[in-house]
Amino acid sequence: MKSEAPTSNEIKESLPPDIVQTILPYLTSKDIKNLSLTNKYFNKLLDYSNSSILWHELFRKSFGNTYTNDEPFISKNSKRFQTCSETILLNTHPGIEWDKLYNLRKYRSAVFTWGCIKHGRLGYTISSNSRLSADSMNQLDRRITFGVCKPVEVPWMLYSVPISGRANSWDDDDTEEETNILGEYDRSIVQISGGGFSFQILTQSGKLYSTGATYHGGHNGPGPLAGEHDFQPIDETIRSLERSFPLVHGPFRVMGSIGDPIRIQNPHHTTNLTGTFQQHEDIYADLMKLSDISSKCLPGNDQVRRMLPKSIFNVKDPKDFDESMIDSVRFVAVSSGRSHFLALDDKNDLYSWDGREVNHGVKLIFNDLPMRSTNPILKISCGWNCNCIFIYGVGLVVWKSRDTTVGFDGFANAHYKVIPNTGEVNGANKIVDFACGSDNAVFYITNEGEKLWLYSNEIEKYIDLPIEGKMVKVQASNNTLAIFTSDTCYTVEIKDSEVAHNTLTKIEITPNVKIISLSFGDYHGIALSDTGDMYTWGLESEMCGCLGLGKPESIVSSGAGTFERARSIRVQRPTKVDIDGTCVAITAGGWQSGAIIIKD
Amino acid sequence: MAKFECTDEVTNFLTELPKCEHHLHLEGTLEPELLFQLVERNGVQLPGTFPKTVNELHVIYNNFADLQDFLNYYYIGCNVLLSEDDFFELAWSYFKRVSTQGLRHAEVFYDPQSHTSRGISLEVVTKGFERACAKAQEEFNISTKLIMCLLRHCPVEECMDTVKSAKSLIESGVIDGLGLDSSERPFPPELFVECYQLAKSYNKELQLTAHAGEEGDPSFVTNTLDLLETTRIDHGVRSIEDAELIKRLAAQKVMLTLCPLSNVKLQVVKDVSELPLQEFLDNDVPFSINSDDPAYFGGYILQNYLEVYSRFGWSKAVWAKIARQSIEGSWCDPKRKQELLSEVSEVVNKYVNLP
Predict the structure, then answer these.
(1) Which residues of A touch B (CB under 8 A)?
(2) What confidence tens digit (pLDDT) does each residue in A228-245 have?
(3) Would you say domain A428-508 falls under CATH 2.30.29.30?
(4) How far apart (Å, rounded) are the C-alpha atoms in residues B303 and B307?
(5) Which positions are annotated as binding substrate (chain B)?
(6) Of the candidates B303, B296, B298, B300, which has an alpha carbon nearest to the alpha carbon of residue B30?
(7) Is residue B266 part of a domain?
(8) What's the total number of domains in chain B?
(9) Cβ–Cβ under 8 Å, residues B289 and B23
(10) Which residue range forms the structural domain that includes residue B188?
(11) What is the CATH number of the domain that holds B229?
(12) Does ipTM top 0.95?
């Protein structure tokens, strides 16, 4: 049967502009681009050179992900929902259209880090980053560097030129214009998330990176239980490869008793080991290649490593590894705990990096919960040593351990619990926001907005705090909870999974500064205002520089802080950090801090 | 390969030069003679394929193929040690031997897990070594420190248990330091952070060190310093590959405990002359020269000094610098350091004719 192509008019009648606008949020950026190239009608409607609605939608899709705890849920009651970066850009760039704001966010933003510099956690070392000047470093008579005391840009891929020296991409014939939509997305950073010992950084292309030599700092996360170990595909491949050569044996293990012949079957044969080994040296070539791929760094920056899912290494023979698998998983959100992190991909699968031995993300399975196609994960949040996610129609799901992976597939069951009565999909009891603390403690608020709930030790209870106004957002760290109302925000300390009522503090900077995001490290806090200003306070331990307020002497001499113990500084009130730009995202790690900053 | 002749005067000078040893595994001082004595005394049955005589075993020791081959014999050797007296005797024969080689201070390693896994208690092993150390102080005026090492190829949980079982020994200061040895590459330092933190929590005075940068790349050294917070690196030869790390080692005076003959025997380098010793000196990275597992690697501390001399020559002033940095990097108290430093000056002054 021959089908006649519908005319533009027919399409316009069946899919009028208001319908198209309604479905835009459900399409990917790529779908929208494809649609715009379909015919004249769509091409005119989805006008990349003029349509502000389209660019606003693209902006939100690219930079306003609501999968992490940085933003509250979008719900019917949050009428004029805006992500933090939207709010900030509208306030700081009034009258600028969304196409320009999109380009600003995409091309003129960069990741800045400061604080403790140990094992490359800032994404650079003292000598690897030319942007690091002597006045940004806290040093002891130039011998020992404790940390970086001012925000410093992380060297990222092709941008050898610091952000301040870069061309504006929308008002000239920059070649970047060409690769605007479907081209290279690796340069554009969507999210940064601070863990105890590292940062996780997500690009617009869906690639996930982690800074430093180790994300876990040698501590175990909410992974396998003590004494259990994941199946390690690459190690197993090495072992089976070595086993195929009878005289060669793998990493030794002392076993047996005194004089047990098992311990050393034939010493004369083992003496010949090296000979056998060398004849077959090339058996390691494929393995070395696989090993290199599995620990890829950012081009030109060895301190930033690509994080990959374990499941892509599901080959018994390294020769069978398909290199294109590397880009088969596209991440859309990342959340970090003390020594672990979670990442969600565009298929709504969840991956966990959660222990000293976990170099690749383990895909988590939640047995007995409904399928993701009907009940997707809407938000992920890492606590100190546990995790909480919100699944549509199921509710809040918490866990702090999982099974080990057993085969080459890299999957494992999470040992989860569903918090009762959190699965409402509408009405007063619908969850508006939640925050994960430690040991499976979760704080959450509902649509009704008047009660703060705490789930801890498997019991839900409500906490009465003298807070004015409706609660709209909560954020937590190991020892601090932040509560946002429609007008202001509060912090309160958490001790042993309980709220210390007498520590409730209203965060007040000046009357005209409105805080829209908070993040906490081990001993410091960072606040982001709706005008893109950043404020820090708390304890800067051991001259680590995590407050970003400059050298200790100048912090003290300016009156902002006081010395505490030998080499620590206490800043009581939130103090503005000098950033020379507009900050659109903040994150506090253990002893370090990070931000995404736009420079016009 | 030797380029410089160890004349009698040089040999005498290097023998008299006060030396500190920081990298010596007591289990690695088990000479074939003592091994066969203990076999007989303890009625241990060796595997049928194991050499039957002292001479045959010496031949094997002279011809290890690689680290694995060495370790196979090393662990069989450990099996003959059963009683407190055995451990005492092992350490005592080491001290007797080096007392004639100008050794003044020794910080010695032992691997409790090689013995506890055979059912011998940590206390028995430690007590035997502790007695020998006390006797070395008394009879030879050799000061000592005892360093308990964790075997990194063992499961981390087991290493944690070892640390826990050593709690009272760490608190009382019988164990002065914590170390980490065995196969490096598959077992990076980050696996042992909690072990180190726990041990340090028992006693703030506990000194920390770890093997790193022998087989592993420089990041193993950096991570050992950052994550395990050690103040010393055992081996660390491969640090030379990272210029930033070299600057850091020099600035923070992190001493590398190098083992020239061991590196050759285990094929880290083909010849002692290939070691970056001159580079370390030029960059002010402190190091000491040590024997590692001398019974197996063909030479105690003096032999290591002589081998290095034969490849590098070096004047009296350079040797004095090495002796001084070995003393400075030791964990003994300032008074002892001062004693040893003045002994260095005396010896240097005594050999007026030596260039």
Answers:
(1) 118-119, 125-128, 142-144, 213-214, 216-220, 226-227, 235, 249, 251-254, 257-261, 263-264, 266-268, 270-274, 356-357
(2) 888 887 777 666 665 554
(3) no
(4) 6
(5) 293
(6) B296
(7) yes
(8) 1
(9) no
(10) 8-34+82-350
(11) 3.20.20.140
(12) no
